[in-house]
Write a structure and sequence with these properties.
This protein is mainly α. About 35% of the residues lie in helices and about 5% in strands. The relative contact order is 0.06.
């Protein structure tokens, strides 16, 4: 968690950590805070309270995966500007090695 605070500006902002003022809390401090939350039975109540505030504002938090779906222009891999097969854009040939039957790719 300490390392994540140094690496993530979003996490630092959420936690109120300003590296220009002081260092991020170390692992021991974070562990003590976590244990204190558990002792006071806030470990489950606190996220419920935050989710309630978010729901009041119409925000729903779910889990998922971030995927880069950038669309880029890519020319045809076989045709040149005249619509003919471009000799520079060829597939590698697969040759069969005589006795063993294994294949090898050559360009």
């Amino acid at each position: 968690m300490e390392e994540a605070l140094y690496e993530s500006p979003v996490l630092r902002r959420f936690a109120g950590v300003d590296l220009g003022v002081s260092a991020a809390p170390d692992e021991t401090t974070i562990l003590r805070f976590r244990r204190l939350l558990e002792e006071l039975d806030l470990g489950g109540r606190m996220p419920d309270e935050v989710n309630g505030h978010l729901a009041d504002k119409g925000i729903r938090i779910t889990t998922g995966t971030i995927v880069d779906a950038t669309i880029i222009h890519a020319p045809s891999w076989t045709k040149n500007s005249t619509g003919e097969r471009d000799p520079q854009m060829h597939r590698p040939r697969k040759e069969i090695n005589g006795s063993s039957g294994s294949r090898r790719t050559s360009v």
